[in-house]
Each structure stands twice: as C-alpha cells, then as structure tokens.
Amino acid sequence: MRVLRPIRFGSYAEPPWDRWCQPMRVTVITPVRNGGETFRACLSSLAACIPAPDELIIVIDGTSDGDGERAASRGARVIQLPISVGAARARNAGVAAASGDVILFIDADVVVPPDLVKRAVRALADHPELAAVIGSYDDEPAEAGLLSQYRNLLHHYVHQTGHEDAATFWCGCGAIRRDVFLAVGGLDGGYSGASIEDIELGYRLRRAGHRIRLCKSLQVKHLKRWTAGSMLWTDVFARAVPWTRLTFRYRVWLNDLNLRTSARASVALVFALGVCLGAAPWSPWAIAAAIAAGLGLTTLNAGFYSFLWRTRGPLFMIASVPWHWVYYACAGVGFTIGLASEILGVPAATPNAQAPPVMRSLSPKGAPEDSRAL
Known about the structure:
single chain; alpha/beta; 2 domains; disordered N terminus; disordered C terminus
C-alpha cells in the first residue's frame, strides 16, 4: 500500500498533494497462538483490505493449529517462534522483521473493515505531529451472549467517549510510526500473555513527548466470547493489578477511559453498597445507605446505561447493570492487590528469561527464510 505524505517547505505554501510527496509504507502485524476460527475470520478480513498493506506479518507465538500455513497461503510473511513468549514480545519480533514506515497492530480476534488500513495510515500521513493513532471496537460484536455483548459494548462506549488526545496506546487496532516505536524501546516484554503492555507503551510515548490520537471512526469487530471466569480473571489480574502498579510507577493519574473520575467513584460506591448490604440485617440506616449507593452508581453511569438501552433495549440494559457493578468490584480488588504489592515491594512483571534463539520465517509461498532473534 502506498499512502502519500506531503513534504513541508518551511514558510512556503505547500505544493499540490499529487506533485510533491513521499511514499509511506505500512506493515500490518498480528500475533496469534492457536487462533482457530476467529483468526481465520481476521485473516480473511485483512486479505480483503483495499488497498492492501505493503506487508502483512503473522507472528505464531509458539504453538499453532495450522495458522502459519493458512496465513502464508494468503500472502502473509509468517514468523514462527519456537516457544510462546507472550503478545508483547511476539509483536516486537514482528516489528524487528518489518520494513514499513508505519506499523499497524491488529489483534487476531477482530475483523477489520476493508478501508481500515487506508484510513489508519492516512490519519498519520495527514498529521505529521502524531506518533500513533488508535481505534475501538464497533457496537456490533459478533458473539451473541449477554456477557460478550456487554463487555464489547463497554469497550466501545469507553473509547467513543474518551479524549481524542489519548494517553494510552491500543494494540487491538493501533498504528504507530516504526521509528518512534523503536526509539522508545518497543513493547515491554515483561508482561506475560495479553495484559497492559500497550497501555504502558502509551505512557512511555507520552513521557517522550509524542502524541497519540484516538480516532473514533477506526472501528473493528471483536469476535471474542467472554465467560464469567475469563472476565473476572482479566479484570483483576490482567488489568487492574498491573495498571495500578503502572500508575504508581509513572505517577500518572488520568481522567480518561477506564480511569476517569466517575469510574473511581463508582468503585468506591460498589464497595460501600456491599458493606451496607452486609450490615442491613442489623441497621435500617444501612438499607437507606445501600439505596443511596445504588442510586449514585446509576447516576454516575447513566450515559453508559442509556447507550445500552438505545442499542440493545431495556431488558438488556437491566441484565447488564449487575455485571457492570461486578466490573467495578474487580477493579477495586485489583487496585487493593496492586497497592499492597507496591507497599510490600513485590516485584512487578519480569521478562521471560527463555527467549527463543531463532525465529523461523515463512515466505508467502511457505519457503523458510532466515530471520533475526528476539
């Protein structure tokens, strides 16, 4: 794909776009591990992008169920890691092998619209002051279950109501200039699995003086099926705990996205509600306080609940409210664990000590070629 960026001429007027321009190459990078049907759908959508990216790199993070061969048959360059090293290091391996000026990270469980690559890179080409742009999930998640619908709609709403001048990066659908990515050291490989490595990258980008823009029109469809167990584990141990520790590490207290002031107040109200309900058998005042806490939660989150009502109807909204309050409870538990870990000096995430010595790379025709180690 060739996206053109204008050459600036100081105080002189810029010449027409089609006369003075430089090519901007784009590489799409997607890490995957036993992706199954969701990755097949993701791969098909990437292959349907118009125009196509200059380079599509699929990084197989250890084990595979045929994803590499399938991707190579679609024209992708496939990098096979001999062991699983986590999403962050897998993406770093992809960037090390990439040739594009712009890196577009796409998760393996999303479907992209045909013009996503063009619009993501155009956002950077039109705004040279930006280092990166991120998008969000759309409001039509693929999984039909209540919990999956609620979780994906929550992400959509949080991003769509966030500040366009973003303070975090997002690897689900995020484009970044390759030279900037390398200059700040890439993603932190100390995070195992999918965690907050992209958020941490955003903090470093902002600390280095770079700008990130949340482009709300860049939307992808999430295919993930959420369960109660996966939601609880993710919210506490993959999000709240490491994000709390990251906040203390960088001394950054945001009022945006998941960390906006209303969300923090909601966490406090959820715990107040639990305490009041526990004391209700012994005190009528506790019942009144519990009602007040519930009303406070509803008021603080009225915008989100109205959004659910408009998009899915009143019954869906009512069924989602308890899960939303559980989400806040998980955030509070994770914050407590993270804070205690900081006070006690518990070491944070540590890099995987066993890095793969060699990466086997497949050409689009499936022929092996040498590549660099991590």
